[in-house]
Structure formats: C-alpha cells, structure tokens
Design goal:
The complex is a heterodimer of chains A (98) and B (430). Chain A has a single domain, classed as Translation Initiation Factor IF3. Helices cover 19% and strands 30% of the residues of chain A. Chain A is built from 2 helices and 5 strands; from the N terminus they run ββαβαββ. Chain A has a 5-stranded mixed sheet with strand order 1-2-3-5-4, covered by helices on one side. In chain A, strand 4 and strand 5 form a beta hairpin. With 430 residues, chain B is mainly alpha-helical. Classes of the chains: A alpha+beta (98), B mainly alpha (430). Chains A and B meet through helix 1, helix 2, strand 4 and strand 5 of A and helix 6 and helix 10 of B.
C-alpha cells in the first residue's frame, strides 16, 4: 500500500522545488523534475535532500540522466542508482553512502 | 542496484565529450596564461602607455584574449552548451581537430606581434580565423538545436554575430601590417575592441553565467524577462558602438552605447547577486571571489570608457580602460570559473574504481589557488599603478606577480588532472 502526501512547498519565490511534484511513498520521498530546464532539477533535488533529513531514500523521476547531479551528491555523501522506469523516464534512487 | 554517485554515466555519455577534448583547451589556456604575463614582462617598458601597435604588449594582450579567454570559452562551451541545451555533443572530431589549428595560430599571432614579424602575424591570423570559423559553425549548430534556455541562446546568438564582426575586423587589422587593410584602421580597431571583448567574449561569459552561477550556488535561475532585457540592451549597445565606429555621430552614439551597456550590466549583476543570495551554497570558494572582482571590473570598464569616448585629457586612461576590460573583467572571470569547472568536469571523468568517486573538492588543490588569487590581485593593482604613474617598473612587477600567479594556477590544474587519473581510492586523499 502506498502512502502519498504532498511535501510542503519551499518558501522562496521562484524556488525550483516549488515547481516540482513531490510525494511520499513506502520506498521514500519522490520528486518529479521532468520538464524543468537546467539547473532546475539539480537544485530542486538538492533542496529536497536538504529538507528531508530524516528520509533515507529519495526517488527521482527525470527525463534525462542528470550529468551535473552526481558530483554534487558525492560532495554531501550521497549515492545514486538507476532503477526500472517506463520508457522515456530516467528514475534514480538516491541514498546516503554507507 | 546502487552505485557511487557519478559511477554511471551511460545515458549521459552522449552529452559528455571525451575528457581529452575540453581538457586540451583548458591546459593550453593555462600555459598561454603564463606566456601572456611573460610577454608583458618583455614589453614592460611600453606597457604603461600602450594604446595599440605591434610589440610585446600587443602580444600579451592577444595571448590573454585568444590564448586564455577564447581558448577556455571554446573548451567550456563545446562541453557545457550541449548539457545546458539538452542535446548530444556532435562533431567530436571537429571539436578535437579545431585545437590543432587554433593553438599554433595563436602562437604565431603572438610571436608575429611581439617580434614583430608581420608575415608570421598574417599566417597566424589566417589560422586563428579559420579555426574560429569552425568553432562558429559548431557553436551555431548547438544554438540551433537547443531546447529551452532562451536566455542562454539569446546571449549565444549575440556572441555569434559579434564573433563574425570580430573576425572580419581582425583580418583587416592584421592586413594593415602586411600592407593589405580592408577597412579603415581606426574604425576596424573600434569595432574589434567592442565586438571581440564585449560582444563575443563578454556575451558568452554572461550567457554561460546564467547556467553556471545558479548551478554552483544551487539557486534559482535568473528571471527570464530581465535577463533577456539585459541581453537586448547589450545588443543595442553593440549596434550603437558599431555605428559610432563607422563614423555616425561617434561621440553621441558611443556615449549612448556606454549608457545602454551600463544598464545591461546593472541588470545582469542584479540577477547574479540574487542568484547568489538565494543559493543553498553560501561558501563558493576562492573562484567566486575572483568572479565578484571581475564583475566589479566589468562595471569599471564601462565607467572608464566614458572619459575615453569624451577624449578627456587624463593620462593613461585608455590603458586603464584596457586593463579593466581584459585582465580585469574577462581574464579574472574566466580564471574564477575555470577553478570551479575543472574539478567538476574531472570528477565526472574520473576513472571508475571500486571505491567512491572523487568529489570536486577532493580534486581541488587549495594552496595553489590561494597563491594565484593573491598574485593575480597584486598584478592587476600593479598594472593600474603602472598606467597611472607611467611606470615601467610597476608594469614589470605586475608581470612578475602575474606570471607567479599563473604558475600557481598551472600547479592547481596539473594537480587536479593527476588526482583525477589516480582516483580509484579517493578516500585516501580526503
């Protein structure tokens, strides 16, 4: 059974995070960044990670492989792994590095 | 399956050039950076009142513009534009081959200017123009196929048109020295300064800033309307400067161009400040100290352009304008960005090992960057003093400081590459 809820929007006007769809599920906090122009997805994902300190996993729904994300994740000690997704979507599971 | 961050780039490989392509441009820019300051040392006697003409000061100027700024801009834009505009990198062979034409061309231009040897200068100019035509074609293809990012694309097209004007005027100016000028020298020089420095290099720097600054600061992107307004105003300023160079009410149009340019710069800087203020990352390191300094020098260059335009009798004012524009704005900005881009790209290209991927901060050697920062600031200050006092001694001191800083920057660059290549177990370097 999935538990869905909307994560509160960020306070800043023009915040990338506010332009994304976010929800909680049994496998972690989800964020859909499809359709955002660079560097929107990168910033929104980093903002979400910063705001969900308690969540061990973030699932990213993307329309491309986010080149610039990996170095930023490594800087904060997180890892990324690709998981199954429908055609046309790149889905990533982000977790804290062990 | 979970991998270390950056450990898979399968789907991204189409948007990543082989590491050897961008890094060959960056490495050459680092080497020409040292040579530019050494050329200034050779021409220190004439540098304080330099206002054009063959000699080592002109060679130093072009080693800086063509050798460092444009070289870096080619490497960065070939890699970053496809990433920013969501398209695969194309024509990888041309991107790599371009270097073989451009690099010796720049060396020949600089030697031809410094010695002076007009025939060498002419041959170098032909090679540089040919290489930049190839770059212009690759650049146009990237802009043409771009999806979204209207601000970057608009700045890119203004830079592209400016490059065309800069190339025509460069050939004409080089032709002057071999007895075959195509345009009036004074008009060609005015067009060349405006369109090469503010138009091509400046608009490229400003356009890429709209991606790079939010990316590094982890902030919102600049608002589209003011960013486009800034671009349009800058384009208007260039057109006015072009008309003035052609002899159409020159003083009035140049003044209007400066005013339009000043509003464009003010808008851009306000957008950049907002991006930095709203960013998640507050400490952007030494690179952004240089970037902030460069922005101040961009504004200063426009302020100094006014007395030059009005032909006010202020000793050394034309040289001060040139210092603010080229080493102050363009060189300082590029070096600030380069010290962020190089470790970032190196982190993406680090070899895949069993351990975690190296982070950009692991790959960055801070001490050489600190030395470079102090030397660069000292060199710029000494250059300004040299222009004000008409002092060859200060010009020489500036060149020595600048060369020391450039050598420190080279140490940073080589260290980053060495760490990238040996980065199978980066934890040991933390």
């Amino acid at each position: 059974m999935s538990i869905r809820s909307t994560v509160p929007r960020g306070p800043a006007r023009g915040d990338w995070l506010a332009q994304t769809r976010r929800w909680m599920d049994v496998d972690g906090a989800h964020i859909d960044v499809r359709g955002l122009a660079p560097p929107g997805p990168l910033v929104a994902i980093m903002q979400l990670i910063a705001s969900v300190a308690g969540a061990p996993t973030v699932i990213v729904h993307h329309d491309r492989d986010p080149l610039m994300l990996y170095a930023e994740l490594a800087e904060i000690g997180w890892t990324a792994g690709r998981i199954d997704a429908p055609p046309g979507e790149v889905r990533l599971r982000l977790e804290r590095a062990p | 399956m979970t991998l270390a961050a950056g450990a898979f780039l399968g789907g991204a490989a189409g948007r990543l050039l082989p590491a050897s392509v961008p890094f060959r441009y960056f490495a050459t820019a680092v080497a020409y950076h040292v040579l530019a300051w050494l050329a200034l040392l050779a021409g220190a006697r004439d540098a304080p009142r330099f206002a054009g003409g063959l000699g080592w000061p002109l060679a130093a100027l072009h080693l800086t513009t063509l050798g460092v700024v444009v070289m870096t801009a080619i490497g960065a834009s070939l890699q970053l534009l496809p990433v920013a505009t969501l398209q695969p990198v194309r024509a990888q062979r041309w991107a790599a081959a371009l270097w073989w034409l451009y690099t010796p061309g720049v060396a020949a231009v600089a030697l031809g200017m410094g010695l002076p040897a007009p025939a060498v200068l002419g041959a170098g100019a032909v090679a540089v123009v040919a290489a930049l035509l190839v770059f212009a074609a690759l650049f146009a293809r990237n802009l043409w196929g771009a999806a979204g990012m209207p601000v970057v694309i608009a700045h890119g097209w203004v830079a592209w048109v400016s490059l065309a004007v800069a190339l025509v005027t460069a050939l004409s100016l080089a032709g002057t020295y071999v007895g075959a000028p195509a345009l009036d020298r004074r008009a060609a020089l005015a067009l060349h300064v405006a369109f090469a420095a503010y138009g091509f290099m400046g608009m490229l720097a400003v356009g890429l800033s709209c991606i790079l600054v939010p990316m590094f600061a982890l902030s919102e992107a600049p608002a589209e309307r003011p960013a486009l307004a800034s671009c349009v105003l800058a384009a208007v300023a260039l057109v006015l400067a072009g008309l003035a160079a052609g002899g159409v009410v020159p003083m009035a149009l140049r003044t209007a161009a400066i005013a339009a340019g000043a509003v464009a710069v003010a808008l851009h800087l306000a957008l950049m400040q907002r991006a930095l203020r709203t960013g998640m990352r507050r400490d952007l390191g030494r690179g952004f100290l240089l970037v902030r300094g460069a922005w101040a020098m961009l504004a200063a260059s426009l302020a100094l352009a006014l007395p030059v335009t009005l032909e006010l009798p202020v000793a050394g004012i034309a040289t001060l304008f040139g210092i603010a524009l080229v080493p102050g704005w363009l060189l300082t900005f590029l070096l600030g960005m380069l010290q962020r881009i190089v470790p970032f790209l190196a982190s993406l290209h680090a070899p895949r090992g069993a351990g975690r991927r190296p982070t950009p901060s692991m790959l960055t050697a801070e001490r050489p960057l600190a030395i470079h920062g102090y030397c660069h600031a000292g060199a710029l200050t000494a250059l300004c003093v040299a222009a004000i006092l008409d002092s060859a001694l200060f010009a020489g001191a500036a060149a020595v400081l600048g060369a020391a800083g450039a050598a420190a920057f080279a140490v940073f660059f080589v260290t980053t590459l060495r760490r990238m290549r040996g980065a199978t177990a980066p934890e040991s370097r933390a």
